[in-house]
Amino acid sequence: MMDFSADKGPKLTLDESSVLDISACIVDGNNLAPGRAIPDDGDPRIDHSLEGFLFTCGPDHIRHPQPMSGAFEGKRYPLHGSFSSHPAKILWTRFEDGNAECRADIDVVTAERLTARLERHWRIDGATGEVSLNDRIVNTSVEAMPVFLMYHMNVGAKWFDDGVRLSGQMLENGGFAWTFGEGSGGLFCVPATAKGEDWSEVRLGPIAAIGGKSLRVRFGTDTLPFLQVWRNQRAPAHILGIEPVSHRLASRGELEDAGEFNILQPGEARSFALNFAFA
Description:
This protein is mostly beta strands and 279 residues long. It has helices at 44-50, 252-257, and strands at 2-4, 11-15, 21-27, 30-31, 54-57, 89-96, 99-109, 115-124, 131-139, 145-146, 150-156, 165-167, 175-177, 185-191, 199-207, 213-220, 226-232, 239-245, 263-264, 269-278.
């Protein structure tokens, strides 16, 4: 694990053993990551990743496992794809002028035994405290491949009270209480923004445990055109996830039949961008 922080903003721990995802996210002395208050999905990679504040799904699959076909018939794509548990190669880190930056490459072998590279760049602005993530996925194999991506930003709901709300222009009536849905859980996936807008923004808060600050998440909608949000309070889980995602909520087969795969030819790349701050 690598400590990563700037003059202002959250104190992060980046997981070098798993795609350089965010493990701890400490704001005002409190770690907002859910820890063990997560559902057991039967996959130790995802248990490990779900405990943290942000983990990355893809590039060969997102969401829950679905059957593979052709030479891999009888097998299933792994839960949330193949990224988790691939180690990161740190190329450089910089802590200068109050800012923090880290650049890493992650070589990935997919469930179909194809290869891809995630070129990851983290930055924290020391003046504003904003955390920025720029990712570039490169098809390093000799075959064309579809590329999917979802960022799970998981927040431990033990920090929430009844005043915490989700807000954003993509949400019904502009927002609602964090306890959306029925009973102990809820899930939805909506278009992230109006046509022509390059970035979308969603907020979660105010969170009394961090001084009434809200989590503000912004993401580029050219490659992340949907926002998925889920919550799970079915014991021992106590978690809410904000999830910018490349594809609508549908089965892999339905997306393929509708021509909605994002195909990368060998050597081609696709970029994704996300930032967040607490204010």
